[in-house]
Design goal:
Strand content: 25-35%
Order of helices and strands: HHEHEHEEEEH
Number of strands: 6
Shape: globular
Oligomer: single chain
Number of helices: 5
Number of domains: 1
Length: about 130
């Protein structure tokens, strides 16, 4: 991972989510990607799992997330570079009046520059708060 690759991944993430563009979001992910988030078990199909395996399952999750929260916006605050990974620090703004929150996503890439692992992190209070519709 170099600065150019990290910048490209950060732009794909930012432009995809803010453009509500599933194809742009999914473009940098490997077919065997593993995604984990505190919300997978709360809003995913399998309440016993915190992970999603494979690009098709991740695509379905991302599509549902965009449908569930249209108008959500993300601001990338920092990009941290590692030898084969990056961390995106960001601010989440909700269209329904909920207060903004922060997040950090860890993205590990393979030799081809595709993301093989994506781990989302949020403040504890945010991950335990009721979701809209709960």
């Amino acid at each position: 991972m170099d600065a150019e690759g990290a910048g490209a991944l950060a732009r794909a993430w930012d432009e995809g989510w803010n453009g509500e563009d599933v194809e742009r979001i999914m473009a940098p992910f490997a077919d065997d990607v593993v995604f984990s988030s505190p919300f997978v078990s709360r809003i995913g199909d399998d309440q016993s799992s915190n992970a999603i395996v494979g690009a098709p399952a991740l695509r379905a999750y991302v599509t549902a997330a965009l449908t569930r929260t249209p108008g959500i916006r993300y601001t990338v605050d920092n990009v941290h570079l590692g030898p084969d990974s990056l961390i995106l620090d960001y601010t989440v703004s909700f269209p329904d009046g909920r207060p903004d929150t922060i997040g950090a996503d860890f993205l590990r890439v393979n030799a081809e520059g595709l993301v093989t692992e994506w781990r989302s992190h949020y403040p504890v209070a945010f991950t335990t708060a009721p979701l809209p519709g709960d």
